[in-house]
Design goal:
Blueprint: E1 2-3, E2 9-10, E3 20-25, H1 34-43, H2 45-50, E4 53-59, H3 63-73, E5 79-81, H4 88-92, E6 104-109, E7 115-121, H5 130-138
């Protein structure tokens, strides 16, 4: 699916039967809203773990940019680079906007690999509400 900042391959299938996954597509590293959104997940990691859920962000930024960004935010969950081939995962999930960047989008995927919740925010300045994610996780 993508490369982590540690240049390791990350595959959604590795979590099948083990954990739920939240895929958080973000438009740009270091942007104002993205740099507020991802630390909000970090602050809630224990709650996500209570729901047996792995949080992962995905952007089309390079691994180097994602490493620097993660360090600046103090986040510990994986940030995946969809840099090359450019936007392959973004396109697979149908969240590339007309400007060529990912929409801010959230996918809650259950342990069986089924997408159970989708939230797409067309305005890149909008911030998602974590409580909506927890509500989706409660329904699993």
């Amino acid at each position: 699916m993508g490369k982590t900042g540690k240049r390791e391959d990350w595959h959604l299938a590795d979590f099948r039967g083990k954990k739920n996954v939240i895929l958080a597509f973000v438009p740009y590293a270091f942007s104002r809203v993205c740099s507020a959104q991802l630390p909000s997940y970090e602050a809630e990691l224990d709650r996500f773990k209570d729901y047996d859920t792995e949080v992962v962000s995905i952007s089309m930024d390079s691994i180097h940019a994602l490493n620097a960004w993660s360090k600046s935010m103090g986040t510990t969950f994986p940030h995946l680079s969809d840099f090359y081939p450019q936007g392959q995962v973004v396109d697979a999930y149908g969240v590339r906007n007309q400007l060529g960047m990912p929409e801010r989008a959230l996918f809650v995927i259950d342990k069986e690999g089924i997408i159970r919740h989708i939230e797409v925010l067309s305005n890149p300045g909008d911030m998602p509400d974590n409580e909506e994610l927890f509500e989706a996780l409660r329904k699993l």
